[in-house]
Amino acid sequence: MTAAITHLIAGQWVSGNGETVVSRNPARPDIVVAEGGGALVADVDAAVTAANEAATAWAATPMHQRGAVLLAAAEIVDGHAAAWGRELAAEEGKTKAEGIGEVRRAAQILRYYSNEGDRQAGDIYASPRAGEQILVTRKPLGVVAVITPFNFPIAIPAWKIAPALVFGNTVVWKPASTVPLLALRLAEALTTAGLPAGVLNLLVGDAEVGDALVRHSGIDAITFTGSTAVGRRIAAAAAARGIPAQAEMGGKNAAVVLDDADVDLALEQVLLGAFRSTGQKCTATSRLIVTAGIADRFVDAVCERAAALRVGDPTDDATEMGPVISSTAQQNISAGIATASDQGATVLTGGAPYSDARADGYFVAPTVLELGGGDADVWTEELFGPVVAVKRAADADEAFALANDSEFGLSAAVFTQDLTRALQAVETIDVGVLHVNSESAGADPHVPFGGAKKSGLGPKEQGAAARDFFTHTTTVYLRGGRPVA
Ligand code: UN1
């Protein structure tokens, strides 16, 4: 059944008068998951106005009370994990098990931030002057524009919206227009949980709506996850207006497998990192670096397992990898593979389109490419699909140097049983998230998430780092009067 796309403005669910937005099942594009009129630029104004009107009362609501709304929403989200996880798989294309896992993860994130009232709210410093203390208090920024990508349709929105709200901000949210259904589910959960009107506004629309939102003078901060090109434009627009922006962007994440690795573990984790979510994670493993002693054995095994992955309809229980999000994505990834071949890469497995029933969906086969010494775009540019580029290294030092051979620095994985090498990786690999003996993707809500180098702009996300972005500080020089004699 096709769901109707509506928008949430000032506590009202309204239909849109913009161009029709159609969300299709990427495994079976003839199936329309959700459809409805998109938002118009005029709706952006209404939503930002509503968020501004709601801001003062929400900021004045005790943090514990704001957290209680998030906790109630977490219960609703958890209670719908099976149903919404299936919808997520049908709308986005990751497997049902991953979809259910993601919905549960969104609930976990909401629950984590629901407890923010129980955590430290600021700092206190000694004063050089008698009778004085110096406090650093935290205040909300105001209205936050939240712009989220397709690949985690409920978890990434939760990890931006939950901290924005608990720290007392109001929100205007524009999700990727390819995943409106899951956006509606999260917004419904929050309103049913008791969020006051105007505190969260949801607009489903195209890039023009996103542009109008980031340029609106009523917005006080922008948080974005998505492509590097768009992230930089958003950060530039924010800088021009003098408002803070947080942009979480691309990755070209390496898995480094050293000769002494636990091979079975490394194999399992590299496969998960590369092909879960069809490789559509900014933290996915898209480069594999293997040292000479095990390279032949390991690369063969990766290819064998990749070729054996069951690729199909993500709502089928047996499926291990679903399609990519859209026909455009499918074409870009296929073009990337073709360019790699032209530049001298050898396709070890995958690479070719499906000619069976899957030809109707946006499927890309799990693909492993081996690179020689020359330059190859597939080594440097994010393809955002199930494609891994392999390079061999003579030894661990060269392997770590290759891991750093990227403009990006989001995440990396290192597989070794040698503590000294693991510590060397911690010291030398320049990334925001490093996994030792686990896949390059994955993030817990209570610790910072974000990239080094060109992967991110602005403060990191999650955990205590989220507070740095979603609040500003007031330093209070607190002195009493003269004691009454
Ligand atoms: C994860 O690795 O589980 O867009 C989360 C992304 C990241 C989130 C990754 N911002 O893929």
Topology readout:
Blueprint: E1 3-4, E2 7-9, E3 12-14, E4 20-25, E5 28-37, H1 41-60, H2 63-79, H3 81-92, H4 96-114, E6 123-126, E7 132-140, E8 143-147, H5 155-166, E9 170-174, H6 180-192, E10 200-202, H7 207-215, E11 221-225, H8 228-241, E12 245-248, E13 253-257, H9 263-275, E14 285-291, H10 292-308, H11 327-342, E15 346-349, E16 367-370, H12 377-380, E17 387-393, H13 396-403, E18 408-409, E19 411-415, H14 419-428, E20 433-436, E21 452-453, E22 456-457, H15 463-470, E23 471-479
Parallel strand pairs: 1-5, 8-9, 8-11, 9-10, 11-12, 13-14, 13-19, 14-17, 16-17, 19-20
Antiparallel strand pairs: 2-3, 4-5, 6-7, 7-23, 12-22, 15-16, 18-21
Helix pairs in contact: 1-7, 2-4, 2-6, 3-4, 4-5, 9-10
Bound molecules: 2-aminohexanedioic acid.
Residues 149, 151-152, 156, 225, 248, 281-283, 441-443 line the site of 2-aminohexanedioic acid (UN1).
Give structural notes:
It is a single chain. With 485 residues, the protein is α/β, with parallel strands linked by helices. It folds into 2 domains: 3-249 and 455-476, 3-Layer(aba) Sandwich (Aldehyde Dehydrogenase, Chain A, domain 1), CATH 3.40.605; 253-436, Aldehyde Dehydrogenase, Chain A, domain 2, CATH 3.40.309.10. 40% of the residues lie in helices and 23% in strands. The protein is built from 15 helices and 23 strands. It has helices at residues 41-60, 63-79, 81-92, 96-114, 155-166, 180-192, 207-215, 228-241, 263-275, 292-308, 327-342, 377-380, 396-403, 419-428, 463-470; strands spanning 3-4, 7-9, 12-14, 20-25, 28-37, 123-126, 132-140, 143-147, 170-174, 200-202, 221-225, 245-248, 253-257, 285-291, 346-349, 367-370, 387-393, 408-409, 411-415, 433-436, 452-453, 456-457, 471-479. It has a 7-stranded mixed sheet with strand order 15-16-17-14-13-19-20, with helices on both faces. A 6-stranded mixed sheet has the order 10-9-8-11-12-22, with helices on both faces. Strands 1-5-4 form a 3-stranded mixed sheet, covered by helices on one side. Helix 1 (41-60) crosses helix 7 (207-215). The termini are far apart. 54% of the residues are buried. It binds 2-aminohexanedioic acid (UN1). Belongs to the aldehyde dehydrogenase family. The active site is at 248. Residues 13-476 form the Aldehyde dehydrogenase domain. It comes from Mycolicibacterium obuense.
